[in-house]
Structure formats: structure tokens, C-alpha cells
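#struct-pred

JT: dropping the chains for the assembly here, can someone run the whole complex?
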Amino acid sequence: MNNIDTVYEPTPQSEHLNNLLAITKEARKLIIDMAASETGCHIGGSLSVIDLLIGVYSKYVQDENTRIVLSKGHTAAALYATLYLYGLIEDNPAESYGQKGSLFTGHPNHKLPHIPFSTGSLGHGIPYAAGWALGQKVKNLDGLGIVLGGDGELQEGLCWETAQIIQAKSISNFIYIVDCNGGQNDGYVSDISPIHNLRQRFEAFGFHVEEIDGHNMEQILAALALNREKPLALLATTIKGKGVAAIEGNPDSHYAKIPERVASKWKRSLL
Amino acid sequence: MSISGRESYKDELTKLAFENERIICIEADLGGKKHPFEQSHPDRFFNLGIAELASIDIAAGLAEAGFIPFFSTFSSFAALRAAESIKLAMGYMEKNMKIVAAYGGVSGGWFGTTHHCLEDIAIIQTFQNIRIACPHGEIETRQVIREAAQSQEPYYIRLARNAVYDSLDRAEESSCRELLIEGAERANAKLCLISVGEEATELCKTILQENDSVVHAHVCYVDLKSLKSYIDELKQISDTFLVVEEHRATGSSASALALLMPECKVYSHDCGEKWPMYGGTHQDVLDYLGFGLAHLQQQIHFIGGTDGF
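RK: done, full complex below.
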């Protein structure tokens, strides 16, 4: 039975958690703002991956030897929001997203600081992050290669070629976070080309596999803090459009351009 | 009212498939929901997911089995990502299969460099044996799709994104493999503009209206075999050409025509050497690359020299 009279005293750890939750809320507002831009944005996937991005950046943002790559590049809005809120880019991306003369293009642009690799052609971010990790290993450094990809993206053969290489070359300083939101451009992953037995697939390639709720910051941080000797595959169950009740779980939210008044309403009612 | 080249493709192929049971439609997660082909011919529609290389090799297998597969994705993911599959299956082995590549050039606008493709014509042309078509507008796109379905040759058909264009008038029974000449009656014309693709054709239409010293030759097919077939007719029109094409200069139709007509002057209005790194509309990105009406007018003025055109 809950004791409602208990005075909740935040510990430093819960303060950190609350801070992250506040950041994710601000990030969602920025993503909604980018959906209200002249071009619109890939809002569904951006809202599904944002908690994972914030969690990863909170842990590794000051680690010079680690590179974080968003391989599902169509969710650039989430990456731009994250970089902005962590002070890694100066300009508010929502103010020029997609516009003429802006480097905030619809897919991540390595011309921007702290974006190591231009992504958007799916699959390429995974071997890039593996290459970075291999480089750290060769130099006897403790940096990581971390990639955030999509479950639909796993249909690209490049993902599995990289998994093969990671196992063959014992690249254990590698983290592959899969944003399993179940959607892709044309509909549901389960309808188009389902990825069966995902845990077993990664385990067969020598990964340590953790399955988490990709919107639960505690679980995200706990998984990233695991002591392990193998490369880590973090299979994060997420919801497309998470936080905006009007589009949560709807594959049609893959890409949206919304009016300003709708953006205001969605930001006010963020869950 | 016209529809875009992409929508024209889907609609025309769906209609053709009622008459031809060998036609198969393949997508790689970029065909959109409620694809008309899927709704009309669900047993011959395959969305193979985000897997372009495999899709093209699978299409080759289907072609070997007697089908006529049409595979559609964005031009960058076909011509660049799956270049080796195209080289072998379509170029070397000449499988009867067709690639329909949307987002040609920088029509993706704000989507950014990963979604632009200014190199595809060069790459595909290098492989030999593949027909390359860059139709302009709905009517020409529909006709190219019909010609592709009837032909035994492999095809690469370059389309833009969602913009709508009105095709030039072409004589009935005329093939898209024939030159389409505007301003042929201009006896004193000194410069022949050659347009390749949708935006280029629109630019040349505008120039033709404002400058009576030019002729406009619109070409739909730009593979080497097709370009060779135009030479005699082009030489009768002029000895000075300006090829307008949303592409890099390297491997462009201009560079091929220059080699095919060494006695003529062949200039190129293309997308230059810069990377299209910024956002904006299709037009904004073209403008950044120096491709557009003002730039073209300047170039024509320069080519005309002190005598002008």
C-alpha cells in the first residue's frame, strides 16, 4: 500500500532522472516545433527515439573517445533537439529547420558540430560506429561506438554484415540501440518485412542483449551502465509519436507537417 | 489537371498490369501507403522492405523467370547504393527489368545530401546496355512506362519528387526516343538548347519564349545509344549547343554529346561542383548550385559573346 504521506526527498540520482525527464519534455516541444515548420518533419520516429537519445547523451556527452551516431537519420529533428538542449549547437534548430541556407536539413548533416556522419541512407551509421569502436580498440582507448537505429532499418543487409564483423573482430566496445517502434515509411514492420527473433539474432552474433522500455529513462540508464564484456544490443520497445496522444502508435505519424495552432495544442498536452 | 511523375508511374503501371500479367511491381518501403498497384494486383506487388541491393537482384531473378519487374526507390539508393547490382544484372546480363528512380537531382529539397542524386546518369550510362529515360511531366512519364514495359531492354527511369509539370506536345505515334524540337521554324537560330529532365525542360521553355535566337531540343532518353541516334538531327539544327541538365558535369549528357560531336561547341548548364548541403525547396537548392533561369541567361549571354544571340 502506498504511503501518500511520505515526503519524497529526491536523491542526487533522482534529481538527475527528473532533470532528464524535463529535458525530454523540452526536446519533444522542439520536435513538435519542427513539425510545424514549412517542411514538416519525421515526427513519429523522432518522438519514439528521443528518450533514448537523451539518455545516451546524458551519459556520454563529455566522453571525447565515444561517438554517437543516429543511423535512422530521418529522425534528425530528435538529434537536433538533443544537441541543442545539451548546448552542443548554438542555434535553435526549430527556427530554421529545412529552410534555405540552413544546415538543419531533413537528415543529419555532418557539417553541423557534433554530428560525425551524415545519415539518412539507412544502414550506413552502424558500420561507421563500428569503425570508430574498432579504432578505439586498436589505440587501446576506452571509447565506444554507439549507434541508434530503427527496427525497420534492420531490413538493410548492411546492419547484419556489420554484426558479423563485430563478432569476427571482437569489437566489444560497441552499443547498438534499436528503436523498435514497429513502423516504417509504408506501414508496419510486421506487415512489410518482420524482424523475427531479434534477441536470438543478436545473440547469435555474440551480442549481450537487453530488452527495455525505450521510454523508461531508468531502464535506459541502467542498461547503459551494465558491466559487460560483449558488444551490447539494446532492444528498446518504443511508440511512434510517443507523448502526443493524437498520434501515438499511429504509423501515419511517420512524417507530418502541422499548423502552428496544432503544435501549440500538442505542446501543452504533452503526456 | 496533371499529376506528378511518381504518381503517373504508379497509375500507368497499374493499368498496364491489367493487360500484361508478366508485370510485377517491387517497392523498398518508399512507395507510400495504399499503393494503387497493390490494391489492384496484390499477388504481383512486393514491398521488400528497406533492402535495395537485394531488391534489384531479386528483380533480376524474376526477369529470368519471365516476369517484367519494375522496381522503384529513390535514385540515390538505386544508382549509388545498388550500383554493382545494376552493373551486373542490367548492364552486363541485360535482364529485362526496370528501375524507376524518384528524387532525381536535388528534388528532395530540404531532405538533404543523403537524399540527393546528381551522379546517377553518369553511373548508369557507364554500365552500357541500359536505357536511361528522364521524362518531363505526366504524359511523357506515362509513355516512357509503356515503352519500358514493351521493350526487352533494361531501363533506368529518373523521376523527381512530387512536383507537377505539363509535358511538351509530342506528335501522336511519336516515340519518346525521338527528339522533340521547339522553335524549329527559327531559321536564324544560332544556339540549340538541349533539355534533360523536368526542371531543365521548364527552363528551356522559358528561354525559348524570351529569346528568338535559340531552338529547344528536348531529349527524354539519354543513354549513349540514344544520344548517338540524335546526332545527325542535332547537327542539322545548329553547331552550338547548351545542354541543360540537373546533374554533375562529370558524366553528364553534355560531356557525352561533346565527345560525339567533336566538331561542334557543346556547353553545359549543370549543378556544378558544390555539395547541396543546405535546406530549402527544390528551387532553393538548385539556386545554391547555380542552376536556374538567371544563371542560364548569363551563360547564354556569355556564349553569345559580343555578337550576342
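JT: nice. Strands of chain A lie at 67-70, 145-150, 174-180, 183-184, 187-188, 208-213, 232-237. The interface with chain B takes residues 39, 73, 76, 96-109, 111, 118-123, 152-153, 155-157, 184-187, 192-193, 252 of chain A (CB under 8 Å).
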